């Protein structure tokens, strides 16, 4: 049994029972070992959860990084979509990720930030936009994963929420705000209104 096996089994357990029910006792039983043997790989449950969060993010953290020829607007949207898809791949993926520190991903984050800045986004705005988009994405996925389905108690005129459409609408608003911050002085903030 190695660290990767423990994390993989812990993620499978997460998908089966949810974050509230994941325990080192259940994981040890699943692995066919005594609970103290898990402490060889992870000193605390918090350490295990951090490793699970990092492993669960692999589809996003291994996605291609932006290149200078990429359009930063499209990249910004796709980066957030990739993050959302990755969080949704695991039961309670957003809860698992919330509060985690992307220590192993710092070089990739720096690359993304440098790409935005090189594309003309002021550094502080790039930082805040990435933070806002990330937190917005986690919040949307938290709500989506907590959604128990249609609520029969709602009035008939309350529309059923389309989580993906709502996410895209909010993401467009974040990008729109960033575009206003990066528009050259004297330019039109809403190019679609020009004739």
Dominant shape:
flat
Q: What is the count of helical runs? A: 9
The helical percent reads 55-70%
Structural category is: mainly alpha
Tell me what you see in this structure.
- There is one protein chain.
- The chain is mostly helical and 195 residues long.
- The protein has nine helices and no strands.
- Helix 7 crosses helix 8.
- The chain is flat.
Summarize the structure.
This protein has 9 helices and no strands. The chain is an all-alpha fold and 195 residues long.
Write the layout of secondary structure elements.
Layout: H1 3-17, H2 24-31, H3 45-56, H4 58-61, H5 72-88, H6 93-97, H7 106-118, H8 123-146, H9 163-182
Helix pairs in contact: 1-2, 1-3, 5-8, 5-9, 7-8, 8-9
Provide tags for this entry.
mainly alpha; single chain; 0% strand; 195 residues; disordered C terminus; flat
